[in-house]
């Protein structure tokens, strides 16, 4: 069964069959965070998309070399124009908090790594910082000047986009269109108002470096071209970002990379549509955002947040609501309960041919959906059907071999979903001669005191001391665990 993999390439505006340049290895660059504040869950939609994409490629057997940049200089508050204006986001925050900009970047970079860990986003191969690559950026800018694409003016360097004939091929903002459009810039030293800065002179800027053109700092776009090529080579297989990155950021990345190497920069451009709130883009500037921390403080499960953000197709905008998050929480619970009951199935017996067939079909359907431009909502629908059908088998008694097969199938999907469904929230406590935890190895790790209390409560229950048993249950609840008494034993969940 050959299953094709197709991605919608923003460059061609079509779905294309995906084939990496090097057999079996995929190079992928993701535009990462500007570390001036906590990332909001809109940003995380973009990073979780990149994570699911990577995980699916790995599921299909590719090795993925993934790089995500950390922007710690040059990203301006007004970034809809190629030549970003306003203030450097990091420096703005530094002034607000009366701190050093490098300190700000360090703090929020740390917060970013904490957040992605909570969301179970796999670590990339490399997270290069812009400020660690000033030398490389200067070198590329020099090349662009040598090739006639860029020019120096009063200590700044600009890209003359009339010198790059392909400008606009990604976003449609060609030189002709720009010329016909509204003129926005007033910087006199530029050849064309739409030229954008590669290197900026600004004595007021705090972060400054020496360069052949005097002291200054890099424009935002140059970092991604330079670091992408440094770690992944001149031509990358995949480059991702949110839809707002298409123009100007990615259009400029192409001009810089291809202008300097003469080679194609990126083969497949994939862009995540925005996460919305009440129909508007979730963004810092609009103030309509939730950080991951906001939601965790409200008591939401990070798995549910992850699920919500990945469950809609990436090329369809997703409206965020707390109701949506609550229903995501229920879905995750349902998956967890499913996995847990399969794990608990102990019944011996002949395999049911129906199970094998369901497994075969769901795998095929899952891959067919994911292979079609990562149609995850369709893929999840197939998984739901599978869960429903297997649950029917479970309720009439599932044999341990079938249970294992279904369990492994579900965990296979979870390699892509990243919900850690094997970190089952339950344990079953069997009362035998001695109290013991069955299968505790892969189950939720409990603090020793909690284990002791459960054992004590089981004893009390056997002795029909209900009141004391209830007291212990409440005590355990306060320690963050919920007990459920079932026919097979006690199930423990994290509250
Ligand atoms: P920034 O930190 O502003 O450079 O943004 C980091 C990434 O998040 C970029 O790829 C953006 O395109 C993406 N992004 C920003 N806002 C949203 C949103 N509301 N929904 C989805 N992605 C977003
Ligand atoms: Zn970028």
Catalogue the ligands: adenosine monophosphate, zinc ion
Q: Give the helix proportion (percent range).
A: 40-55%
Q: Number of domains in the coordinates?
A: 3
Query: What is the CATH level 1 assignment of the largest domain?
Result: Alpha Beta
What is the assigned CATH homologous superfamily of the largest domain? Answer: HUPs
Query: β content, as a range?
Result: 15-25%
* Structural class category: alpha/beta
CA(first)-CA(last) distance: 43 Å
**Any low-confidence stretches, pLDDT <50, length ≥5?**
430-434, 438-443
Query: What is the arithmetic mean of pLDDT?
Result: 92
Q: Tell me the number of strands.
A: 19
Biggest sheet record: 4 strands, parallel
Overall CATH architecture of the largest domain: 3-Layer(aba) Sandwich
The third-level CATH topology of the largest domain is Rossmann fold
What is the rounded Rg? 27 Å
Shape: elongated
How many DSSP H or I helices? 15
Instruction: Characterize the quaternary organization of these chains.
Output: single chain
Main β-sheet, spatial strand arrangement: 4-3-11-12
């Amino acid at each position: 069964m050959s299953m094709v993999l197709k991605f919608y390439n923003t460059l061609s505006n079509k779905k294309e069959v995906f084939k990496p340049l090097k057999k079996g290895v995929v190079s992928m660059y993701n535009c990462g965070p500007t570390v001036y504040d906590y990332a909001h869950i809109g940003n995380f939609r973009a990073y979780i998309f990149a994570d699911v994409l990577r995980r699916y490629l790995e599921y299909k057997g590719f090795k993925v070399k993934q790089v995500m940049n950390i922007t710690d200089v040059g990203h301006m508050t007004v970034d809809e124009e190629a030549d970003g204006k306003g203030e450097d986001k990091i420096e703005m925050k530094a002034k607000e908090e009366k701190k050093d900009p490098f300190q700000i970047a360090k703090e929020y970079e740390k917060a970013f790594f904490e957040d992605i860990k909570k969301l179970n986003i796999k670590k990339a191969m490399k997270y290069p910082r812009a400020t660690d690559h000033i030398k490389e950026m200067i070198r590329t800018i020099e090349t662009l000047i040598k090739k006639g694409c860029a020019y120096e003016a009063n200590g700044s360097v600009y890209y003359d986009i009339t010198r790059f004939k392909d400008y606009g091929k990604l976003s449609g903002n060609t030189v002709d269109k720009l010329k016909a459009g509204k003129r926005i810039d007033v910087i006199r030293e530029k050849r064309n108002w739409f030229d954008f800065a590669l290197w900026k002179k600004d004595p007021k800027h705090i972060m400054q470096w020496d360069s052949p053109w005097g002291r200054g700092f890099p424009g935002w776009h140059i970092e991604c071209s330079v670091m992408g090529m440094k770690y992944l080579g001149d031509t990358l297989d995949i480059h991702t970002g949110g839809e707002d990155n298409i123009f100007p950021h990615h259009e400029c990345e192409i001009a810089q990379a291809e202008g300097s190497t003469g080679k194609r920069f990126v083969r497949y451009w994939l862009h995540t549509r925005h996460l919305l709130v009440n129909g508007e883009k979730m963004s810092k500037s609009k103030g309509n955002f939730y950080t991951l921390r906001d939601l965790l403080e409200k008591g939401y499960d990070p798995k549910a947040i992850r699920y919500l953000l990945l469950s809609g197709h990436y090329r369809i905008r997703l409206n965020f609501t707390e109701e949506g998050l609550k229903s995501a929480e229920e879905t995750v619970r349902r998956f967890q309960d499913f996995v847990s009951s399969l794990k608990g199935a102990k019944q011996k017996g002949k395999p049911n041919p129906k199970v094998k067939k369901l497994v075969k079909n769901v795998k095929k359907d899952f891959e067919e959906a994911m292979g079609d431009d990562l149609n995850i909502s369709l893929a999840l629908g197939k998984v739901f059907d599978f869960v429903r059908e297997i649950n029917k088998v479970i309720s009439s008694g599932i044999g341990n071999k079938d249970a294992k097969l279904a369990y492994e199938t579900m965990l296979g999907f979870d390699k892509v979903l990243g919900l850690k469904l094997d970190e089952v929230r339950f344990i079953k406590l069997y009362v035998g001669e001695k109290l013991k935890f069955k299968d505790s190895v892969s189950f939720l790790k409990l603090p020793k005191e909690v284990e002791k209390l459960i054992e004590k409560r089981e004893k009390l229950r056997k002795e029909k001391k209900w009141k004391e048993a209830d007291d212990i249950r409440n005590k355990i609840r306060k320690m963050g665990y919920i007990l459920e008494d079932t026919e097979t034993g006690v199930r423990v969940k994290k509250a």
